[in-house]
Every structure is written in C-alpha cells, then in structure tokens.
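Worked Example 4.2. Consider the chain below.
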Amino acid sequence: MFLTSRENPRVARDALARGADAFLLKSAALGDVLSLLRGRAAHRPSTYWLPVQVQPLSIREEEVLDLVAQGLTNPAIASRMSLSTHTVRNRVAAIRTKVGAHSKLGAVSVARRAGLLG
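Applying the procedure from the previous section yields the following structure tokens:
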C-alpha cells in the first residue's frame, strides 16, 4: 500500500509498478484505511485502484512468473524448468519489462492485479 498526501496519478502508477497494491491519500477516512488493510477497499474518492495494463507474456514467461510468485529463486526455477540460470534471469527481466515493474516482487504484484496470477 502506498500512502501519500499528493493526489497525482503518475505517482500512483509509479508506486504500483514498484509493488504497491493500492494508492491511498493520507486524508482518507480511517474506515477506508482499515477496509483497504483488510483487503476490502471501499472505492471512495480517496482510494485509487488504477487499471493495470501489461504486455502479453509468453507461455514460458507465465510459467516463470508463477514460480517467482511461489517464491522460488532463479536457480530453483532453472532446475525445475530444465533451463540455465542465465535464461531464467533473462525471462525474469523480460517479464519485469512487460509488466512495468522494477523488481521481481513488483512484477508479481502487478501480475496479480492484472489477473495473470491466481
């Protein structure tokens, strides 16, 4: 969750791309904050859920992303998929680029919001 005093969609998009799953203004009502923390956002004007747009992933990228979401390391993913760690690292980089994330965790978060992960 990203909490800010500024109502700026660009800041919200950046926060979401870096792994935040919500953008909330500091002026939000306590009930909104509690609802958001409980996973049931109250979609009021002070709560922003921006639409997530990502480029399509290949089948192999989806498989890698699923394993990343399960918490596997690149070497573990490589072993499980019979790939080199270099190939896994390249696939993770491609996934991050396609979903607009700066980290593996950010990629998983964006992918969940985009419906790519369960």
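DSSP finds six helices and three strands in the chain. The radius of gyration is 16 Å. Compare this with Example 4.1 before moving on.
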